[in-house]
Design a protein that fits this description.
The structure holds two protein chains of two kinds. Chain A is of the alpha+beta class. Chain A contains 20 helices and 14 strands. Chain A folds into three domains: 101 residues, PH-domain like; 283 residues, no CATH class; 35 residues. Chain B is globular. The chains are: A alpha+beta, B alpha+beta. Chain A: It is found in: Cell projection, Ruffle membrane; Cytoplasm, Perinuclear region; Endoplasmic reticulum.
Chain lengths: 550, 651
């Protein structure tokens, strides 16, 4: 298919662009295969807006006489309005945008056409390989091994080719365990806590069914992570009720009788459409400026977004607490083990592991616990808050995770190497990007799409020094401790950087941020100067002494 | 009383055993813990309510709520002791004479001269001079020199030049409590002004020629404008109800060239109930997100804050953008009027956003114009219906502005919190009584100390590191959106959950930046010294031994200040989870401890850095009982670094 077929009117003049907090601008609108480009052709202060079609969540059109108006709502939650003269032009443009923003073939997406204008220093596709992770692990323990059981994605289609499992469990046993777990997602290592050797494993639900099926190998596998005489915790991210209901569909949970060394805790984290509804309501509340103070608070409350944040953070803190304070190993799972499970395991690592609070470490965490672990990004992030499609697999699971990270960052503003912008950038790229990183639903699909060969990795771009500097937190001071966030309602706030980004004036906050950077920059400069002078003085003094000695 | 337990509100497991002392001015709780002997001091004047709860097996619980939003829960073993404490506290918390208040016994060891200097720090005449007054349009009037016209006004009042004594006195007779229109703020650049008064006694049809002339005089003092706004800060319904009592509001037909405007700010009773409701939400043991948001909405608190801000914004816009003068009143003109005038001044004039200027602002719009501190904040035992968080709301408005304009204020959040604290503490004489007249009669300035001098002395603690005199946010008017940006108003946990340290961000950006700035200053000094030495050395290659020793001094000093940067990276008790955490088999005894020991056993084999871990755990315990600095914990943080640092941090 040629994109040109979809573009009936590639260009319109005298289009007026409206955005909140900006004056309306007149200019030319161009449509290309992947972009909507608006250019105010003013000589003095040319302004250009480039919008990826894949960033467009929904589009509305209306007419007053022959002046058409197109309202474009984006996945990054921005809303822009274009006034396009001429009914035919307007209709053509609207239908082109609609078609181009809902292409159903992945290989037509922009990442397959994008050619980077920058020099690639380090290929992001090869940055975070499981072997490297494992090497780090072997330096502290020899109880684990790298298994290539899933090399051809033959055992579990949503797992990566290699996984880390207890050394004492052979591949044959793993195969049996895979049959006992939903989607074959058998328990694998998620995190090793160096401080006390405790571990966090993750999996999907066991397929106990109504007749209480058991699997000796499964029991053996997870018991292999326990120290003699010690107990572990299973954190089930569903309520007991839902977990019990799952038995009727062949799923279920670990029975005490078969797992006597494990204590099961149920924490209810919502899924799918409940989360999507929550996002839609929240964004609606944020965009509605007409209501008064009371309505705002009640709408914020009714969206339940912050309730979900609190639930997820609480479960993650609980997992971290079991590991660090109780000195116990933990297994986390929900139903499929691809959503709430990953929220919990990745947030627990941010709390426990200082490495995950660095830029590099956080990238590695996203790769390990989200991309390689098989979070179905393409399904979950197909649409955002403005879509009308209401597909049942759409859910802001990853955005909720990023929001939780932001909450911790807000409570520990000096403990993270990255800043809020870094998290916002990841949110944007998960939903629409020129990079291939978040395409596909798992490693299996990514390898079939040949993403590493055909597209550019987000990390190749982000990790260049000129980009990286935008995402660095000037306040960062390495903090080797476990950081315990508060989950009290008073401590959790709306993430304004994402949800109010386009409808609040940010000038004064930006200025404050700049001021902060300058204060720290000036300090560093002075430090360098003082050090240089000290060295110079010391040299001169030695010279002098040598002369004296002569 | 011995063997009293102080409960931690957030986690029922944590409590401290200690001894309770009652002194003439304070309740003091000293923990038995031999190492720390942590002390909790509460001023009697801070106590807002004491509640004796039903006796349980462990003893008799006593709940003390403070006006600075601290909540203390004690369990006293003997019912009789508890009753005695309760009775004494009720008496002590409600003094009947001013002389019983703390400020008359508080002695910061300053001599007479220093005390007098302290009171001179804020001088309102100087302030009106700064505004450019007296000038061609405004003058000082001595009509109230013996409080003869209005006993709740100051002796020195600024009025339009054309307003004669006859007009002023006539107008005062037509205003509630004789609070005639007087100048609050004057804008040099365009002659527009903010005046304040109480409501007119207009009833349904009464008129007063002098009052009409007074408003005319205010309009004339701003020649560039042909009308003035009269802003009634009450809801229209309240104002209409007042007409039946012979009070009310200005009739546009009777006054030439006024534009009348209602801005619905609720009265003190609504505000008192609203705060009460919000504090109930803050006190919930482990509220869900919905409980909290629903309760916050239901309290209406943020709606009221927004109403005050909107009134302030309206006035600031009228003055700055339209160049129109404004007369503000409510009923008596000492609560809502004070709030609104001071918010508008703050928006208009960057001076009030400096530390000194803010003191002046409170002195001008609140203290001098007879805001009834004693009644509103219950310093002496009085009518509970008079109590209302009027200035608390103003202080919160300032905080909301600070959140929106992070570089615009010279002072930080701590400054606001401490001022709020001292409005209730009665440790300083500034906010005693209900009017200037009463304060003069009581000879407050001769017998007590001024808060402003105390704050000024410690001003380094109250600086906003992002403030720069030449920054754009510190110039001119702050331009706020009048549009309903509801989401800009947020719950202030730093104030209302002030003592629940666990709820706040664990690391303070302000403190961090202050430490950086302090270090920067030292570096600048060192740079200068080094530069000089270098020049000297180059000139006359001499005396290198002294240079060396001095240089070493410097570097140790610097090391100290950098350590400041590694601020409280303190792990804290994750209390909410402890509750949800299932208890383990009973044989294990005290859970926390055994878990700890077992962890350490495991560690011995794998982790060489054992000491740091155990320290860290103890640090957690420490903080959960709200130790002010969490020093013990910080020591552990980098046990590798030099010991100086740890000592410094623990202080």
């Amino acid at each position: 298919m040629e994109f040109a077929e979809l573009i009936k009117t590639p260009r319109a003049d005298n289009v007026v662009l409206h955005r909140p907090f900006y004056l309306a601008v007149e200019g030319t609108l161009c449509l290309t295969g992947h972009h909507l480009i608006f250019s105010s052709r003013r000589q003095d202060n040319a302004e250009e807006l480039w919008l990826l079609h894949s960033n467009i969540d929904s589009i509305e059109k209306r007419f007053v006489g022959s002046l058409g108006t197109v309202v474009i709502k984006c996945k990054d939650l921005r809303i822009i309005q274009l006034d396009i003269p001429g009914m035919e032009e307007c209709l053509n443009i609207a239908s082109s945008i609609e078609a181009l923003s809902t292409l159903d073939s992945v290989t037509l997406m922009y990442p397959f056409f994008y050619r980077p204008m920058f020099e690639i220093v380090e290929d992001g596709w090869r940055c975070f390989l499981p072997d490297q992770e494992f090497e780090l692990l072997t330096s502290v323990t020899d109880e684990w091994r790298l298994s290539c059981i899933n090399k051809e994605f033959s055992v579990c289609s949503s797992y990566p080719p290699v996984v880390i499992v207890p050394k004492s469990i052979d591949d044959e046993a793993l195969r049996k365990v895979a049959l006992f777990r939903h989607g074959s997602r058998f328990p694998v290592l998620s995190y090793y806590h160096k401080k006390n050797g405790m571990v966090m494993m993750r999996s999907s639900q066991p397929l106990t069914g109504t007749n209480g099926r058991r699997c000796k190998e499964d029991e053996k596998l997870i018991n292999a992570t326990l120290r003699p005489g010690k107990r572990g915790y299973i954190i089930d991210t569903r309520s007991l009720n839902i977990a019990q209901q799952a038995r009727a569909k062949g799923g279920g949970f670990e029975q005490e009788a078969h797992y006597p060394q494990w204590r099961r805790i149920h924490k209810c984290i919502e899924r799918f459409n409940i989360l999507q509804e929550s996002l839609i309501k929240l964004v609606e509340a944020c965009n509605d400026q007409s209501h008064n103070m009371d309505r705002w608070l009640s709408k914020l409350e009714a969206s339940n977004w912050l309730t979900h944040i609190k639930e997820i953070l609480t479960a993650a803190c609980l997992a971290a607490q079991c590991i660090d304070r109780e000195g116990a190993s933990v297994l986390v799972h929900g139903t499929e083990g691809t959503d709430s499970t990953l929220q919990v395991t990745s947030l627990a690592q941010i709390i426990l592991d200082p490495r995950c609070r660095t830029i590099r470490g956080f990238e590695s965490l996203v790769v390990r616990e989200w991309l390689q672990a098989g979070h179905p990004f393409q399904q979950r992030c197909a649409q955002s808050a403005y879509s009308n499609s209401k597909q049942k697999w759409e859910a802001p699971v990853f955005l909720l995770f990023l929001d939780c990270v932001w909450q911790i960052l807000r409570q520990f503003p000096c403990s993270f190497e990255f800043n809020e912008q870094f998290l916002i950038m990841l949110f944007e790229h998960a939903y629409a990007s020129q990079f291939g990183t978040f395409l596909g639903n798992n490693e299996n699909e990514r390898s079939k799409l040949k993403l590493p060969q055909k597209t550019m990795s987000l990390w190749s771009w982000v990790n260049r020094p000129e980009e990286l500097s935008k995402f660095q937190n000037p306040l960062f001071e390495a903090n080797s401790l476990v950081i315990w966030p508060s989950v009290a309602p008073q401590s959790l706030q709306l993430w304004e950087g994402v949800f109010l980004r386009w409808n609040r004036p940010s000038k004064f906050l930006d200025e404050a941020h700049e001021e902060m950077i300058n204060i720290i920059k000036y300090n560093k400069e002075l430090q360098a100067k003082v050090n240089a002078l000290r060295r110079q003085l010391a040299e001169m003094e030695t010279d002098e002494r040598m002369q004296e000695n002569l | 009383v011995e063997n009293v337990r102080l409960l931690d509100r957030l986690s029922s497991k944590k409590s401290a055993l200690g001894t309770l002392y009652l002194t003439a001015t304070h309740v003091i709780f000293v923990e038995n813990d031999s190492e720390t002997h942590k002390e909790t001091w509460i001023l009697h004047s801070q106590i807002s309510s004491i509640e004796k709860q039903a006796t349980t097996a462990t003893g008799c619980p006593l709940l003390i709520r403070c006006k600075n939003f601290q909540v203390i829960q004690l369990v006293i073993p003997q019912e009789r002791d508890c009753h005695d404490v309760y009775i004494s506290l009720i008496r002590l918390a409600r003094p009947v004479k001013y002389e019983e208040l703390y400020c008359f016994s508080f002695n910061p060891k300053l001599d007479k001269e220093e005390r007098e200097q302290g009171w001179k720090l804020v001088d309102l005449n100087e302030e009106y001079n700064r505004m450019g007054i007296p000038n061609n349009y405004w003058q000082i009037s001595d009509v109230n020199r013996d409080y003869g016209v209005c006993d709740s006004y100051p002796t020195e009042v600024y009025v339009p030049k054309s307003a004669t004594a006859r007009i002023i006195v006539g107008s005062s007779k037509f205003r509630s409590r004789r609070r005639f229109p007087a100048l609050s703020y004057y804008c040099k650049d365009n002659n527009a002004s903010i005046c304040r008064s109480s409501q007119p006694l207009s009833g349904f049809s009464a008129r007063c020629l002098e009052d009409e002339q007074m408003l005319q005089a205010i309009r004339k003092s701003n020649p560039g404008s042909d009308f003035i706004y009269v802003v009634d800060t009450r809801p229209k319904l309240n104002a209409m109800a007042n007409r039946a009592a012979g009070k009310g509001y200005e009739n546009e037909d009777n006054y030439s060239n006024i534009k009348f405007q209602f801005i619905g700010i609720e009265n003190i009773h609504v505000m008192r109930n609203s705060l009460q409701k919000m504090l109930e939400v803050c006190e919930l043991k482990s509220p869900s997100m919905s409980d909290f948001l629903w309760g916050l909405e239901n309290s209406g608190w943020l709606k009221h804050i927004k109403a005050i801000m909107d009134a302030g914004i309206f006035i600031a816009k009228a003055v700055a953008e339209e160049g129109v003068s404004v007369l503000v009143h409510c009923s008596d003109g000492w609560d809502r009027t004070a709030q609104v005038c001071s918010v508008a001044s703050l928006l208009l004039d960057p001076y009030y956003r400096t530390m000194k200027g803010f003191m002046v602002l409170i002195e001008k719009d609140w203290v001098s114009f007879g805001h009834k501190f004693n009644h509103r904040y219950g310093n002496l035992d009085g009518d509970p219906k008079e109590i209302s968080p009027v200035i608390d709301q103003f202080i919160e408005c300032v905080w909301q502005l600070m959140e929106q304009f992070p570089c615009a204020f010279e002072f930080n959040e701590r400054f606001l919190i401490h001022i709020q604290h001292h409005i209730y503490s009665c440790q300083f004489g500034n906010f005693l009584c209900n009017s200037q007249k009463e304060r003069r009669e009581l000879k407050v300035q001769e017998r007590t100390y001024s808060l402003w001098a105390h704050l000024w002395k410690n001003r380094a603690d109250y600086l906003n590191p992002l403030y720069r005199e030449d920054h754009s946010q510190t110039q001119g008017t702050l331009h706020l959106q009048m549009a309903p940006c509801n989401f800009l108003y947020k719950f202030w946990s730093g104030m209302y959950n002030r003592f629940e340290k666990g709820l706040h961000p664990r690391q303070s950006v302000t403190d961090y930046l202050m430490a950086v700035k302090e270090e920067t200053q030292q570096l600048e000094e060192e740079l200068e010294v080094l530069g000089e030495r270098l020049a000297n050395l180059q000139k006359s290659q001499l005396n290198d031994s002294t240079v060396k020793s001095k240089q070493q001094d410097r570097s140790t000093q610097l090391g100290l200040s950098t350590s400041n940067n590694s601020l409280a990276n303190t792990p804290q008790e994750y209390s909410n989870d402890l509750k949800s955490f299932p208890s383990r088999s009973p044989s294990q005894g005290d859970e926390e401890d055994s878990a700890l020991i077992l962890t350490q056993d495991n560690l011995k084999s794998s982790d060489p850095d054992l000491s740091a871990n155990s320290d860290q755990e103890s640090g957690v315990e420490d903080l959960s009982c709200r130790s002010p600095s969490g020093g013990g914990c910080l020591q552990s943080e980098d046990s590798g670094k030099d010991s100086d640092e740890a000592v410094f941090l623990a202080v």
